[in-house]
Amino acid sequence: MTESELIEIMRSSVNELLRWVGFGTLTGLAAKAIMPGRDPGGAVSTLLIGIGGSVIGCGTALFFWRDAAIDPISFKGFFAAVFGAFTLLFFYRLLAGSFFREATEDDDRWMSRVRRRLRRRQVIDDVLRDAA
């Protein structure tokens, strides 16, 4: 392998990497725009979700339609990649806990009152059962 061939391989590899990063950013932003609510991540997570979504979405489309020609940077590839990024974002939010509302201090007080009442009722039921 000559030096010019090695340089051409490196140049095409860097070009392909930049295409995936740019396209991944666009698909990650599109997935975040489609899914309502606040997102638990920043710019780097958007980039990674977009790149991962591109790979997952296009790979899934190629798995189900083997004869389909899907290039990540095409109309079909964009929708497949956004679907993949949307799926990754859904699971990312699910695992980060942003789909569920955290309990507040008022909720904790209310639940402790409910538990206390249930314990009192259980004690009263036990006393009444033992007396009978």
Give structural attributes:
single chain; 132 residues; mainly alpha; 4 helices; elongated; cell membrane
How much of the polypeptide forms β-strand, as a percent range?
A: under 5%
Q: Tell me the number of helical segments per DSSP (H or I, 4 or more residues long).
A: 4
Number of domains: 2
Number of strands: 0
Coarse morphology: elongated
Mean pLDDT: 77
Low-confidence stretches: none
Q: Percent range for helical residues?
A: over 70%
Largest sheet descriptor = none
Keywords: Cell membrane, Membrane, Transmembrane, Transmembrane helix
Transmembrane segments: 47-65, 77-95
Subcellular location: Cell membrane
Main location: membrane
Can you put this structure into words, describing what you see?
The chain folds into two domains: 3-100, no CATH class; 103-132. The protein is 78% helix and 0% strand. The chain is built from four helices and no strands. Helix 1 (3-34) packs across helix 2 (43-64), helix 1 (3-34) crosses helix 3 (75-96) and helix 2 (43-64) crosses helix 3. It is elongated, with a radius of gyration of 26 Å. The mean pLDDT is 77. This is Transglycosylase. Keywords: Cell membrane, Membrane, Transmembrane, Transmembrane helix. The chain crosses the membrane at residues 47-65, 77-95. It is a multi-pass membrane protein.
Task: Put the structure in a nutshell.
This protein is mainly α and 132 residues long. The chain folds into 2 domains: 3-100, no CATH class; 103-132.
